[in-house]
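dude i think i finally got it to work??
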Amino acid sequence: MNHPAARQSEPVRVAVVGPTATGKSDLALDLADALGGRCEMINADAFQLYRGMNIGTAKLPVSERRGYPHHQLDVLEVTQEANVASYQRHARADLEAITARGRRPIMVGGSGLYVRAVTDALDFPGTDPAVRAAFQDRADAEGAARLWEELREADPEAAARIEPSNTRRIVRALEVIQLTGRPFTASLPRYADLAPTVHLALRLDRAALNARIDARAATMFSSGLLEETEALLASGLREGPTAARAIGYAQAIAVLDGHLTRQEAAAETAAATRKLASRQIKWFRRDPRVHWLDVAVDAAGQWRPGERERVVAEAVRIVRAGAAVAQPERTGEAIGWGP
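look at this
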């Protein structure tokens, strides 16, 4: 697309996206180093917004951030609701401030709607506390499954994308339908950047990615996830509208409640993460702007010698070419809107 001329002198923005456990954080840091260091990171992982949720979200410790400022990390308490419309306001403000400082913003994360909320011209339906409360009261009285059936009648596509047990998303979908008179699955606008942006994603063989996911889940439970979750429960995690459902933490709570063993929780976490990765891959495959960087790994999912340097060099080449500006546009598939 044609961007305003005033934007052309700015550093091309970068979004490092894609499925979980592929190494997005490391690529972003390596890329920042290779581009000369005048970069700042903006988190685009919905659960890394939460303060104290570190192990289960694979959040980079401060000591491993190489001195680069990281924005939109640790900005919510676990009792607060993660809301993409609110994230959009704050992350866009960070992006503009970074650009005004003459530095390059690099978005990093796999929450696809959060990424597009910043890079694309997305507007989100408002909320009505009374309408939402009425649906929530009905869910409490009649059960989430009954409201899901109602959603399926009003918007079959939305119902297909929402689990019948996910009360929060069912209530939100019905709220949007009532407020807007339109399906919850309103079509996204074209894949078109508000400013020149290069979208990069790492691609691993699926078996290797699964091996990395399994190893990560096991490591989380052996390196303090239960203790971290116990501390977060004392801060209100169980009452949090979104944080308590995060993969890993939901399973850790089940261990602490005596419903799962540590081994069972690690296995369930890995299985849920593999499903998440599948959804993320499908999401980002639909975006024609994404440059997929194939990575050669061994049977354990570890990068082969020399791969890191090769992939970073390729990423630098793409960024320097400003390739995202020339990418074609097309209309996105319909998805569910909502916080």
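Strands lie at 13-17, 39-43, 70-71, 104-108, 197-203, 290-294.
im so relieved honestly
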